[in-house]
Amino acid sequence: MANIIAQTEHRFSDLSAEAVYAAWLDPAAVRVWMQRNLERTGSSARITEIAIDSRVGGRYRFSDIDDEGQESPAWGYYRELVPGRRIVFTWFVEPAEETEDNSTVTLELRPDGAGCVATMTHEMDAQWADYIEPTAKAWKGMLESIEETQGKERK
């Protein structure tokens, strides 16, 4: 079965490609924008773990917990890191997905005036075809949350 792709794009008006790249790999920044993203979606969950080993082959793990105590982890490995330009990483939320190893996210950054354009592409198993739009929307929300939180920190 062929893989499918969810894709979204976001223009950062005043955050450089280098700043957006750094926001994906700095644990403190990730904690802030991920919490903001949860709030944007109406969730009362809170971030409980951000662990990042930002090197090719390095592992990351993000986790939050809701009011009922339900943990929602996501983890993966960095496959490619090109400062200010590109991050490729796997994305898993279930152990079986890690075993299958067919969920890959690519963040492409290109300068655009005082800011940049970010394109997120998530390639995943075709069994998740019904989730293309929600997945693209989720990545878009993360990019918007980066702009909301990192843009404020710069001002």
Description:
- The structure is a single chain.
- With 155 residues, this protein is α+β, with helices and mostly antiparallel strands.
- The protein has helices at residues 17-25, 27-40, 95-100, 132-154; strands spanning 3-12, 46-52, 59-65, 71-82, 86-90, 104-112, 115-125.
- It has one domain: START domain (Alpha-D-Glucose-1,6-Bisphosphate, Chain A, domain 4).
- The chain contains four helices and seven strands.
- The protein starts with a strand and ends with a helix.
What topology does this entry show?
Blueprint: E1 3-12, H1 17-25, H2 27-40, E2 46-52, E3 59-65, E4 71-82, E5 86-90, H3 95-100, E6 104-112, E7 115-125, H4 132-154
Antiparallel strand pairs: 1-7, 2-3, 3-4, 4-5, 5-6, 6-7
Helix pairs in contact: 1-2, 2-4
What's this model, at a glance?
This protein has a single domain (3-43, 79-150), classed as Alpha-D-Glucose-1,6-Bisphosphate, Chain A, domain 4, CATH 3.30.530. The chain contains four helices and seven strands.
Mind telling me which CATH architecture this is?
2-Layer Sandwich
Q: Largest sheet at a glance? A: 7 strands, antiparallel
Please estimate the helix content: 25-40%
Net shape:
globular
Number of strands: 7
Low-confidence stretches: none
Mean pLDDT level? 93
* Count of the domains: 1
Strand share of the residues?
A: 35-45%
- Helical region count? 4
Give helix and strand order, one letter per element, not per position: EHHEEEEHEEH
The whole-angstrom Rg is: 15 Å
Q: Kindly report how far apart the N and C termini lie.
A: 48 Å
| CATH domain topology | Alpha-D-Glucose-1,6-Bisphosphate, Chain A, domain 4
Q: Quickly name the level 1 CATH class.
A: Alpha Beta
Structural class: alpha+beta
The CATH superfamily is: START domain
Strand order of the largest sheet: 1-7-6-5-4-3-2
Protein name: Activator of Hsp90 ATPase homologue 1/2-like C-terminal domain-containing protein
Family: Belongs to the AHA1 family.
Organism: Pelagibacterium halotolerans (strain DSM 22347 / JCM 15775 / CGMCC 1.7692 / B2)
InterPro entries: ASHA1/2-like_C, START-like_dom_sf
